[in-house]
Fold this protein.
Amino acid sequence: MGFKELCFKKSLWVYHLSAGSCNNCDIEILDCLTPRYDIERFGMKLVGSVRHADVLLVTGIVTKKTLPRVIEVYEQAPKPVVVIAIGACPCTGGIFATGYNFAGPLDKVIPVDLYIPGCPPKPEAMLAGIVKFLNK
Amino acid sequence: MKIENFIEEVRKKYPDIKVEEINLKRLMIYISKELLLDITSYLFATLGFRYIIVSGMDSKEGYEIIYHYSDDSSGWVINLNVMLPHDKPEVESITPVVYGAEWIEREIMDLLGIKFLNHPKPERFLMAESWPEGDFPLRRKENKEL
Amino acid sequence: MGKKTIVPIGPYHPLLEEPEFFKLYCDGETVVDMVWETGYNHRGIEKICESKTFEQVFYVVERICGICSTSHPFAYANAVESIAGVEIPIRAKYIRTLIGELERVHSHLLWVGLAGHFLGYNTVFMWAWKYREPVLDMFEMITGNRNSYAMFTIGGVRRDIDAEKAKLLYKVLDEVEKKNNLLIGAVMDDPVIHARLKGVGVLTAKDIHDFGAVGPTARASGVDMDIRRDDPYAAYDLVDWKVITAQGGDVFAKAEVRLLELIESIKIIRQCLDYLQKNETGDIKAKVKDIPAGIGIGRAEAPRGEVFHFVKSDGGNSPVRHKIRAPSYTCIPTFRRSCIGGTISDAAISTAAVDPCYCCTERMSQAYDVKTGEKLYNAAELIKLSQSKTEEIKKRLNKR
């Protein structure tokens, strides 16, 4: 197992970025922290600065105003970083794709490693997606 | 104030305006833009109606700006309708009377290109810096260049 | 009076460190000005609605905000049904009311958790969110989803709640009520919370009127208004409940209003379940052919206040204009009155007190020195300041 894989198999530090979301996905991400799903027992925790992050969770369509910020955050994240697009919005834009303020989808802006569709995806779906990715 | 009394008072005070019940418990008062500040003061400051929001629309006849107020004691929504011509979309800002209207007027400036005269802070509100000047998303296609 | 440097420690909740919401200008410890910046979540929803059919708009407006997800379809349905002049069946009224009140319960619990976190009571945060889960389970039982329920349609609701489901829901509701009462008692009686929240972030009735603020923010300043009673819709005039107001206008009053509203909501939910159990069948949707030309104004009382939808139809398949106003739009500007003049350590909780719906608006940002323009604290640091103040108060009260 390489050094990189070893790091990723253990405590993941997660940075969450909302690029113009409706908060449904954000609340479901927070739900993962709460006692029912409790990802903290796996050592996963949310960090306040992207410079400490292993994983970048992005929700929301990328609006024109958040576009420069998304790029800036991605550039600040220490590589390797896993970028996860949570919800239908960063994956394809969802129902907002026809809007005039749409500047996405996310993979047009930054490279995405994992897509978890849903509106919002249940916490179980998010955890299943992450586990599937880690086992690859 | 009971709603029937209100309609009577308004008709007495402003005899030339049209007052219409557009739906159950919904009243529409059509005014010219000159009367706006006076009647706003009457509804908001004197009668104490609650300010809800301001809607802007690009209609065939002009830019329709509708000011919505709520009379919570009766459950009626009182709407003030001001029509602005397509070639001169300007109207007085009501922010000096209704502090809460500051944001919505800035939003309408961004989305419809209406000029609110004497607005305390007529700056870009919603759109990104990269959004081109003069591009108003809520305008109909034929009015985009105006 | 030196400059304080606070080391940012990773926040629990991810809705921080985000695009600038507003900047607080400080002179020493006092907040003297506030500048707002927004537009990050502007998705152009009003324009998108113009290209969807009336029925499709329900799914768009649900996603304006994930937390007060049902209030927008509620107000929109009221608007469109008033244009069409249709009266919905009574069973649909009760089901709509049930969903609306369940949402109020989950939203207020969410707020209690966040307020707890801002104060440094992470136990309250975990507790409130844990006891929110059974409410989300109830939603999943009824609608198939934990958020974004897709229950509304023009003329009624899309899914029924049969008597068997109602019985199951009763059991879960009992559980929710027991835990709620525990939580309410613990929060309302805590002396540290009293010391921390009383007199903070005060809004007078005049402030409320000036900004058009609504919901618990207004009711906590003694303004007796509630759309469910003033302009009744669905089954709110068929069930027994009361409007909760408080005096004082401070953060404690706002918390009190929300906690007591939880109890009223559970009361309403029980009455709806009673009706659905006693009347086992009934229409859940009225037939609506076309939406004629006209204007409809629909309102609903979301957990944060009045949601207002203005719909104009020209007889076609889509709305010609759809204006949406979320309650936070008029509640958030009140920060000018509640934060300015207060201390920086109270800024976090004063802003959280109006329960800003993050997606209808944005998140807190940074504090600057008004004289030098130097950045003092970011959002996480402001929360840490708030938590430190609670610690100090705890120590002071324990010394006595």
Remarks:
- Helices of chain A lie at 3-9, 24-31, 67-76, 88-92, 123-134.
